[in-house]
User: Fold these one by one.
Assistant:
Number 1:
Amino acid sequence: MDNTSFDYIIVGAGSAGCVLANRLSENGKYSVCLLEAGPKDNTPFIKIPAGFAYFMFSKKYNWGFDAKVDSTIRNGQPLFVPRGKTLGGSSAINAMLYIRGQREDYDQWADLGNTGWSFDELLPYFKKSESNSRGDSEFHGGQGPLVVSDRPVHYNISKSFIEASAQAGLPLTDDFNGASQEGAGYYQCTIKDGQRCGVNRAYLKPALARTNITVIVEAAVNRVLTTDKVATGVEFVKRGKVITLNANKEVILSGGAINSPQLLLLSGIGDQAQLQQHNIELSHHLPGVGHNLQEHADACILVKSKNHQGLTASLSGIMRMVPDTLKYFSNKTGKLANSVVEAGAFFKSREDLSRPDIQLHMLPTLYDDSGRDIKLMRSEGYSCHVCVLRPKSTGSVSLKSSDPRTAPEIDFNLFSHPDDQQVMVDGLRLVRKILAAPAFDVYRGEEIHPGIGAQTDEQLFDKAKERLGTVFHPVGTCKMGIDDMAVVCPELKVHGIKKLRVVDASIMPRLISGNTNAPTIAIAEKAAEMILSTADND
Ligand SMILES: Cc1cc2nc3c(=O)[nH]c(=O)nc-3n(C[C@H](O)[C@H](O)[C@H](O)COP(=O)(O)OP(=O)(O)OC[C@H]3O[C@@H](n4cnc5c(N)ncnc54)[C@H](O)[C@@H]3O)c2cc1C
């Protein structure tokens, strides 16, 4: 390596890291180095939208963490925590649904003392990042790098879901990201010309022609180097060799909500007692690192189908996909050019609420265990997944070992707050109501799960936990704020350490009401502007 000093060193080429690498190198004044633990995104499965399923089994492109659970959840089997490990990070393996959350989510961030982070202040960054196929409007951008498109609807069951929601007396919407989120509708996706539009494609690749940007893959950062509470660089390992880089201006951690707190802890920044336990030299006592972990708990209703139109891992199901496979490889259209989740909804679990507190994902398949239960998927069926949008339960990411190669301990602590249980149960009842509507008559077979035996709140909740999953939205572990447990300030600078920021999903003080890719990109857009606004003075 020729250069060992850069103005900005960014750790992690995910949703936030690629945005930063582009924006910080844009004016040509500063040198930027982007370090990514994973390999290049060379597999074709990243480009093919339906390739999503492949990554649930990949060890190369997915960190594939496990989270501990108590014995009542999935019979004590750990929860699978997929995270992208390649250029593009989790945006390279995600389901591509484009959702921002609700105005109130960001207004709450601002109310917590995070000046500058209200919805009205963040909306310009959502719009800056976005190129919506519907064009510019009050709520959408039409010129940004991230392509967001309406998708053709391929599965009849997606249409039936919308019809059934209306039959159940629920509202419909044609834009989850407009003035109001509430309703059932079709998801817009980050898909461009039939191929995934992750952040590598949207932000990083267009910047690579610049001479002031260096990207190093298969570079796992072990720790941030600090001297007298100032970040000076990072140490990483590439092909077994330990390499040190110096940062003239700043080190920016964009490793995501699991890895960024782990990296801070490995660097001696975190709770003193935890660091002592692992014999890590203290750089700065910051008790909030790794706490405040939030995630969308996901429960499902699985129903067998009389109608053979869905996605099935049986021989006949595979044969049904042949025409679509040919279509995709001839002109990038058909089912493979879509996310398998075409329809969904944001509803209130109880009528007296002022805004939606559950999100639904409708799948034309029997989907459980993050799509890894292939045996289940061999039967014809469909599933509707409910998630608790604003969980009150919080968990943590902590060290299992001082060895950076050892995965951290992840404990979502799901349902530790009783209010989350009630939301989930009410959500499942609402889904049952939708699935009982006439639009589903042509499909409806046996309810495999929770099963008609589960009728009381307690029975429904117990059953929900048996097949509990998550929507892969961990956030909050390096929370932005001004209280004692905050890790970064509203400018995303780590409290107590100079020249070190965290910019990724981990900084969200509260989980937003929806999928987290677009919000993470908007966070990075805003962060880049904040960083550049003082760059010449630093
Ligand atoms: C399977 C799945 C499906 C999802 N579906 C959707 C969806 O449909 N819509 C949506 O909006 N959101 C979805 N999400 C969530 C969304 O993709 C994430 O919230 C978002 O990508 C997080 O961005 P990030 O920058 O915080 O982290 P990431 O994008 O995960 O990036 C972190 C990067 O840092 C790298 N890294 C970590 N540690 C180190 C280290 N020590 N050294 C070097 N590099 C390191 C990682 O390899 C990774 O590339 C999904 C996520 C997953 C995993």
Number 2:
Amino acid sequence: MSAFDFDAVVVGAGAVGLACGYALSRRGLVVAVLEKEAAIGQGVSSRNSEVIHGGLYYPTGSLKARLCVEGRRRLYAFLDSHHVDYRRCGKLVVATEPEDVPRLDAILDQARTNGVEDMARLSGEEARALEPGLRCEAALLSPHSGVFDSHGYMLALQGEIEAAGGVVVLSTPFEGAAPLEGGGFRIRAGGAEAAELTCGLLVTAPGLAAQAVAAAIKGFPHLQIPAGHFGKGVYFRLAAKAPFERLVYPPPIPGALGTHYRKDLGGQAVFGPDLVFVDHEDYSVDPLKASEFAAYIRKFWPDLDPADLTPDYAGIRPKLHGPGEPQPDFQIRGAETHGIPGLVALFGIESPGLTSSLAIGEAVADLLSLSEPA
Ligand SMILES: Cc1cc2nc3c(=O)[nH]c(=O)nc-3n(C[C@H](O)[C@H](O)[C@H](O)COP(=O)(O)OP(=O)(O)OC[C@H]3O[C@@H](n4cnc5c(N)ncnc54)[C@H](O)[C@@H]3O)c2cc1C
């Protein structure tokens, strides 16, 4: 029997924290996931595109490249086995101007290097044969991209953690932790019934709060906490019939994949997200942005009636770079960087974090097995 209250504590019940809890449960650990909100998945995981990414764009050798492809494969299998809704609708990356066409070739090369299966290069006519109404010079088809029910996914993860004897504790903010002599941690949790608990292993997956949570762990070197930035993106919904079946993405913009089209699981067309750096959490959607969105969308869908665009929702990416700076990789930090055995801290889990979540969980569990207390 463990000397601790829990074998492992995970901070944050978003898709990534729950996937970490699931991975640790699968390895036989009893896990407590602490969540400050009154329900799971209220953070970044409920304000995104719900796209299962193929893994096309990410630089060779990066965690994003490896974990997106592995995570996508794991995710489809998990959704199947847990009866969670998804649609493997495929995605078209479109070059709307002749000068964008060479970018498609570079993306295709990168996708193949990343191990993305079954990619195809299409002419404009071939793309229009799939999606009449689409305007483009050429396109790439990524058949394994899709959309899914991210909340159903998170509920299934919670169910797995609980079935393995673990708990997901809501309305319970993590307030701090101190390493114990001989291994493990003492955790301070707040909420209606503030409490202390002990655990052998600690994983922090608090999304936008990654920096604040790391700073509340005694002994975490401040120089190892990367600067965080908020990358806001807004969405507009179409008040008309969805024009395409597949996802449609122009080539990426600096710092993000850019505003794209998706038909969600409810059959509605949604456009977004753009990227604007903000200094606090602000989820408002400025209706005046509709004209900017319309101009962008009409490059690949000239039939759009701008009057059909209605403001929808906003999300904020937990970024590790500011405007104009190169987009860094996910950070999955074990004892080799911060010097605290038994702790893994996650930073910068922006897109494709949902797609990668199961693979991130496995990577975290692998890292911890190297530093698990005896
Ligand atoms: C606009 C946008 C579009 C995106 N689109 C996609 C996409 O289509 N596909 C894709 O793969 N990825 C996408 N992403 C990325 C993806 O949404 C994230 O990578 C992923 O949801 C991050 O999950 P998480 O669990 O790390 O964070 P979160 O979901 O934010 O979970 C962190 C949790 O920690 C909790 N928490 C914070 N502090 C504490 C504390 N002190 N104590 C206890 N709990 C705490 C929060 O309440 C929250 O529930 C997108 C992101 C954005 C913003």
